[in-house]
């Protein structure tokens, strides 16, 4: 198959776009598509101070690479979670991230969970009942807290993550199977800061398929960590991704259309309007300010993160 | 495995209900469940004159059997569609339906499409562009028209169909993949008559799994037509049913919870309120009265059915 734009051999064929591109035109196309998404969804501008949450994986490093090429002011934030998994997952992903940022002269901030809180995510998870033996729930809580904290402290105006279409469609799929109103009414590729202690969030890769991000990282020679987090196996998100891949294989474009038609239907007024006021949480409930960290919480006391970390300090 | 209610051998184990029952308690349970659904969703009462649309398949004959046992005033309507498929599909399904009603002394009305309109569904479909080669779209249109017409002419207060949970969940699944607002805001196991020319509709089996209906028909000795309509193969509904079966196999109860949580979320106000006035269609648009048949239509002229049938009369 030949590249649509030149006579070179295509390295990827995107059935849902009926578009095949070569190793030169493909990364150009991805960069242009991301720019279009950032602008069309009013995510941020070149005036914004952007903080990219980087894990060392293909999506977040590629996103940082794209933002760098597009000339946005984008610094990176790596969160060391203290996960080993028998192959030094955290150590290796940190090494790749540092290598990536040094090669491009980019600014990388590092937040170290075991260093700061005396224990890694798996140990924190063991102390709580959240997640029924899987540390993913605690991990999400800790990452959200630290990302927001780092963005506020560093004066960043927007926090961006490398979630791709497969991630977003799988989350939507899971929340649709249970008709989770809070998610369906609120979740968005751009989340405004609804509380003084929150920073605006955006997902510039939400229209790009996971396999397209892998191809981008490979063709750009980005050395990302190939291994997934050891706790990912058997997760619901992987399960939903596989189901969606099956639908996509039968109907190219189904995954993209599922997510985009959701956004479109919501814009057309499908859902009852959720409270759009400031200081309300995902379910429209009032938000309080945590006396420990200043971030929002749904209870008028220490937030779940502060309790998680504080509980540790109280235990023997 | 033993029956939950006695010491006999169980003939079915319903994982989603954690319930195994024997050949005596199982049909009793299905009948009781259907009664509960009819009452809980205010579908109809013993005062209503009920018309059951029967195809000769397991679901509709079983439904008629259940309503008969429960003492509802339920007559049957069989629509002969003129579909052969190499095995006399319409002839055989009509024969089974007649046999069923005669054995129970029930009243059966028969509407014969080829006799009344000079051609069967496959021929009607060939003349139009609806359905891209598949007659299913034309078939649905014709059946809806005839069912409603027969219910009005016979003075029935409610029209019931044998749609089971698998049918309903598959339709919801397809409409969710495309976020079809008209369906999501309106479709319901009970549809009130929103126009003088429409009869109220209900689906008393919507909470019962397809395999449970098969087991019911078998244990009750109902001789239904085993073959599916020859045009069903490769349909979207079959595709969605298979996907849902896969999810169900991994998480027993997922199918039921998907459909029930949708109804619950809607009741809780998830969706923007669709126009609830009379004389509005599924998308909230105004409904006109067809000058040909008196049934509602979204255009101020002959309805699609009358045009479909009329077009034939004008052609050579």
Provide the spatial order of strands within the biggest beta sheet of chain A. Answer: 5-4-3-6-8-7
Net shape of chain A: globular
CATH class of chain A: Alpha Beta
Which fold name fills CATH's third level, the topology of chain A? Rossmann fold
Largest interface: A-B, 25 and 25 residues
Biggest sheet character of chain A? 6 strands, mixed
Concise description?
Two copies of one chain form a homodimer. By secondary structure, chain A is an alpha/beta fold.
Provide an overview of this structure:
Two copies of one chain form a homodimer. Chain A has 316 residues and is of the alpha/beta class. Chain A has one domain (27-220, 233-314): Rossmann fold (3-Layer(aba) Sandwich), CATH 3.40.50.620. Chain A contains twelve helices and ten strands. The first copy, chain A, has helices at 25-40, 58-69, 89-104, 113-117, 121-127, 136-153, 165-177, 181-186, 210-219, 236-250, 254-267, 304-314; strands spanning 12-14, 19-21, 49-54, 73-80, 108-112, 158-160, 190-191, 200-202, 288-289, 296-297. In chain A, the strands form three sheets. In chain A, strands 5-4-3-6-8-7 form a six-stranded mixed sheet, sandwiched between helices. Chain A has a two-stranded antiparallel ribbon with strand order 1-2. The relative contact order of chain A is 0.14. Mean pLDDT of chain A is 92; it is low at 312-316.
């Amino acid at each position: 198959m030949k590249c649509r734009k030149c006579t070179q051999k295509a390295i990827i064929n995107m059935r849902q776009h009926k578009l095949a591109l070569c190793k030169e035109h493909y990364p150009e196309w991805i960069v242009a598509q991301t720019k279009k998404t950032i602008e069309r969804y009013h995510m941020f501008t070149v005036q914004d101070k952007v903080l990219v949450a980087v894990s060392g994986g293909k999506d977040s490093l590629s996103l940082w690479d794209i933002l760098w090429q597009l000339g946005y002011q984008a610094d990176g934030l790596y969160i060391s979670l203290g996960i080993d998994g028998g192959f030094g997952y955290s150590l290796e992903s940190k090494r790749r991230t540092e290598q990536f940022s040094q090669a491009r002269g980019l600014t990388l901030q590092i937040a170290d969970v075991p260093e700061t809180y005396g224990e890694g995510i798996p140990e924190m998870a063991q102390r709580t009942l959240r997640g029924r033996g899987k540390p993913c729930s605690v991990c999400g809580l800790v990452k959200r807290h630290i990302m927001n904290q780092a963005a506020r402290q560093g004066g960043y105006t927007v926090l961006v993550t490398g979630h791709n279409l497969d991630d977003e469609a799988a989350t939507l799929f899971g929340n649709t199977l249970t008709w989770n109103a809070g998610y369906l009414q609120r979740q968005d590729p751009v989340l405004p800061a609804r509380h003084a202690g929150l920073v605006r969030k955006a997902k510039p890769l939400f229209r790009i398929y996971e396999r397209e991000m892998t191809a981008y990282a490979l063709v750009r020679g980005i050395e990302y960590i190939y291994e997934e987090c050891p706790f990912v196996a058997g997760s619901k998100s992987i399960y939903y991704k596989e189901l969606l891949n099956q639908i996509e294989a039968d109907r190219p474009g189904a995954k993209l259309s599922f997510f985009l038609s959701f956004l479109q239907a919501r814009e057309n007024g499908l859902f009852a309007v959720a409270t759009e006021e400031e200081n309300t949480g995902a379910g429209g409930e009032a938000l309080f300010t945590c006396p420990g960290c200043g971030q929002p919480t749904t209870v008028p006391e220490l937030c779940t993160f502060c309790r998680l970390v504080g509980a540790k300090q109280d235990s023997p």
